[in-house]
Every structure is written in C-alpha cells, then in structure tokens.
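task queued by scheduler; priority normal; single chain, no ligands, no partner chains; default sampling; output format set to structure tokens
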Amino acid sequence: MPPTTPQVPAEETWNVVDEYYRQLFIPADAALDATLKSSDAAGLPAINVSAPAGKLLHVLARSIGARRILELGTLAGYSAIWMARALPADGKLITLEFDPKHADVAQANFARAGVASKVEIRLGAALDTLPKLVAEGAGPFDLIFIDADKQNYPHYFTWALKLSRPGTLILADNVVRKGAVADAHTTDSNVQGVRKMNELIAAEPRVTATAMQTVGSKGYDGLAFVLVVG
C-alpha cells in the first residue's frame, strides 16, 4: 500500500512548494538576500515579490529580449534587480517610486547588486511622472511591470499603453486579491481599481491578455499578462 500524503493547511503547502522551487532553481544570492534584509531593517512593508516571482520577471524579460523596462513601484528594488539583470549591457530600467525613503533604500541595493548603471529611479507620484516620460519620448518600453497602488491601476494601464509598442509585454501584479476580484459588489478600493483596469484591458482592441491565479509564500493572488498587438 503506497504511503499516504500528509494533509497540511493550504498556506503551509504553498510555502513548502515555493521553498522547493527556490532551492531548485534559484541559488543563494547575496545581493538579493541583502536587499530583503535592508528592506526589513528600514521598516518597509514586506510586499516585495517572492523569489520565484522575481525569477519569472527575469525569465520573461530575457525571453522577449527586453532592452528597456519600466517598473511602477520600486519599494526596496528587489523586483527591479531581477529584471535589470536580464538586460543587455546597454539596457535601461526606469522605476517609479513615490516614497523618498524607499528610493534611498533601493538605490543602495542597486549599487550593491551591481546594476546601478542600468537603473534610474524617478521619484514622485507615478501619475505625475508617467506624463513626463511620454513627453520626453522615454518609450517605447519592451516590458512594463505595474506593482504600485491598486486604486490607480486603470490610470497606470492607460499610461503604459502610451509608452508601449506592438510586442510590449505589460504585467500587472496583485490582480486576484485573495479571490475578491470576482466580487462585482466589492467596496474595497484596491479591488475596484483592479476590476476597472481589467475592464479597460478587455475592451482594448490593441492588446490580448490573460491572468493567472498564484499561490505561494505571498499568499493567494495573481498576475495579469497583457501583450500589445496593435
């Protein structure tokens, strides 16, 4: 008789599987570990992407040959380091951050990780910075990662389109909200922001998109994948 699989709570299983894949596919990395430690030491919220999600961003950036990347929401720079490492020597990543403290922590982490020459932090509200990027002709970007305040996701997607070209991949994180995204009557402004963005994506003829539910050390959430096709 085969051995039975021990029954464990779902969250514990997610963490075990995340750790399994982290050990298998993501070797220990002093710079990334130091980034997380610096974030904790500075009292930043523990909302960075997980290691497997960071590696996914890296793999996606490499798979499309990204040379220019835009990120909305820097925090301590963890996800930006993953993506910057996928860039060629002359590649560029611009990351937008509202909080000066976060930006200072991230800048030190970029220097420690050896990617400071490829990464530029734009400080200020993204809804102020994005029009400036358009005005200065900073785009088009090959990859755009949206991981900032959810209430403004509809606006961020609209500006991301302006900074895109056919072939640009737009990613939006935290789009499942523990399943609350399916609630049409939600009063949660974060969920409302995600739903409004989803409606814009669905109605936009210039893109094709999907979303995947995710579980792991960061809980139950999801990621939207939007490919600009026209």
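post-processing summary
- The mean pLDDT is 95.
- The longest strand covers residues 207-216.
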